[in-house]
Amino acid sequence: MVPDSRAGGSRAFAVLLVVCGAAGLVASWVITLDKFKLLEDPDFTPGCSLNPVVSCGSVMESDQAEAFGFPNPMLGLVAYGIVVCVGMSLLAGAVFPRWYWLIFEAGCVFGIGFVSWLQFESLYRINALCLWCALAWLATIPLFWYVTSFLVRRRFLPAPAPVRAFLDEFTWVLPVLHIGVVGMLILTRWWDFWTS
Fold this sequence. Notes:
This is Vitamin K epoxide reductase family protein. InterPro entries: VKOR, VKOR_Actinobacteria, VKOR_sf. It is found in: Membrane. By secondary structure, this protein is an all-alpha fold. It has 8 helices and 2 strands, in the order E-H-H-H-E-H-H-H-H-H. Strands 1-2 form a two-stranded antiparallel sheet. The model has no long low-confidence stretch (mean pLDDT 93).
């Protein structure tokens, strides 16, 4: 069967994009504002710096917070804004060609890769956790899995029939497992702190 060259999304998929994009946008906005305040006043303490582990300030002052030479959340403002626009377009009935979806997927792959690197750096190099960053992680993980699932089920990405069948019913399992693994890593990384 030859896949259609254009596809829209269901209402639920569109809402998921809007919600994930909005959550990432809020996280990026708050981190950007706090970063500006930190640049103005080196003694500024972000509101989410609660203790030695949950310390947004430590994360914001790290080299990893400017991976491309500018604050990471500025990238998030653009990327999550695009996600919201795509979701709103789908809610309005838009239908996009395959190439558009593949470019969107490339952005999601970059996003999940970047977020995974930031998670590793936060847990094992910076040794601190930023709650707003964690919200961006929680937005990116389901975004990646549901967009990938959508493209596989529409046959815009190649996959065997059993994989497509699994994704038809159980896409939700993948982000739940992914978030669970990240949660367990956070729990075990600072187990002594959490239990003291």
